[in-house]
Amino acid sequence: MLLMGTLYGFSQTSFTLDGRSVNLPATSVYLLSYYGERTSLFDSTTTDATGAFRFTLPGSLATGLYKLQWGKDQSIDLIFNKENIAFRTVADHPADSLTILSSVENSLYYTYMQIDRNNQMKLELLQPVVDYY
User: Fold this and answer.
1) Cα separation of 126 and 57, whole Å?
2) What is the pLDDT of residue 4?
């Protein structure tokens, strides 16, 4: 019983999501949670002059996929799994320029997404040849 209380006391009570988006000074950034295909606003913040921003996520926040959105069509998906997340990107092309600095799950996710995009591009190039024959 004493061991459980000691271990519980050492659990992290909050996590940080640090981001920096080049060409995004003094802009609102929204953290959205997914429920099926719908999103709902969880939190928002404003970038500083360099495009940096930070969210503090409570330890009780459910693990899962979240969306960071700024502007009308600029957004990225991030996996929250009770760890700190840090990334850098360019505001106009967030998914293509994304660099994950801290977060194992997000690094693996975006490595997979890059491989998938490359395979889809190759498939699109091969499809006319397959259709011809």
Assistant:
1) 44
2) 47
Phi, psi angles (nearest 5°) of residue 5 = -65, -40
Residue pair 98/91 in contact (Cβ under 8 Å)? The answer is no
Q: Are 85 and 18 in contact (CB under 8 A)?
A: yes
Is there a contact between 76 and 89 (Cβ–Cβ < 8 Å)?
A: yes
Query: Distance (Å, rounded) from C-alpha 28 to C-alpha 127?
Result: 41
| Nearest by Cα to 31 from 50, 49, 13, 18 | 18
Please list the rounded mean pLDDT of every run of 10 residues in the chain (133 residues).
47 88 90 90 94 94 93 90 94 89 94 94 92 87
Q: Provide the token pair at 76.
A: 């990225």
Which segments of the chain does DSSP mark as H helices, in order? Answer: 2-9, 94-97, 104-132
